[in-house]
């Protein structure tokens, strides 16, 4: 009987050790992702260095599902720049092209007007009531690069939230069942 108890004890301790190693591996994966995100924030100067295009307003240049990489710069914003901006009180950032910039007299502040390349008119209808221009504090960053189609994963998980939980569960199960 002592032989069986010793065998069960050693199997249980080996399984616990493997389970602990799997949780450590999962923690390292999550930590690595957070470190990469923080490095992107430091390099780009943006609080949100990566955004997903969720509409067709910038086609054909950027399509729905493209991922844009943003950067902030001390250089003044000029017509033709593609910027990501956020309107006060609205949660979703917008990716559009700057079509006009007006410098304010006696200050370094500028008024900025934007438009989606695929839209018939400027963005004033999207700004807050009474707002005719964006100011530099609305601009989150300028697009400096993109990956086509990769953002579809985010769009699908936003449209069908249960997929997010299925994916997280599957990844967790994979980490717990993987053999070294």
From TrEMBL:
Sorted keywords for this record are: Hydrolase, Membrane, Protease, Signal-anchor, Transmembrane, Transmembrane helix
Single biological process term from Gene Ontology: signal peptide processing
Highest taxon listed in the record's lineage: Eukaryota
Instruction: Indicate the transmembrane segments per the record.
Output: 20-40, 162-178
A GO cellular component entry from the record: signal peptidase complex
Q: What class of enzyme is it?
A: hydrolase
Which reactions does this protein catalyse? Cleavage of hydrophobic, N-terminal signal or leader sequences from secreted and periplasmic proteins
Q: How does it sit in the membrane?
A: Single-pass type II membrane protein
Sequence ranges assigned to domain Peptidase S24/S26A/S26B/S26C in this UniProt record:
48-143
Function per UniProt: Catalytic component of the signal peptidase complex (SPC) which catalyzes the cleavage of N-terminal signal sequences from nascent proteins as they are translocated into the lumen of the endoplasmic reticulum. Specifically cleaves N-terminal signal peptides that contain a hydrophobic alpha-helix (h-region) shorter than 18-20 amino acids.
Matches recorded under PANTHER family: SIGNAL PEPTIDASE COMPLEX CATALYTIC SUBUNIT SEC11
Task: Return the protein name.
Answer: Signal peptidase complex catalytic subunit SEC11
State the organism named in the record: Phaseolus vulgaris (Kidney bean)
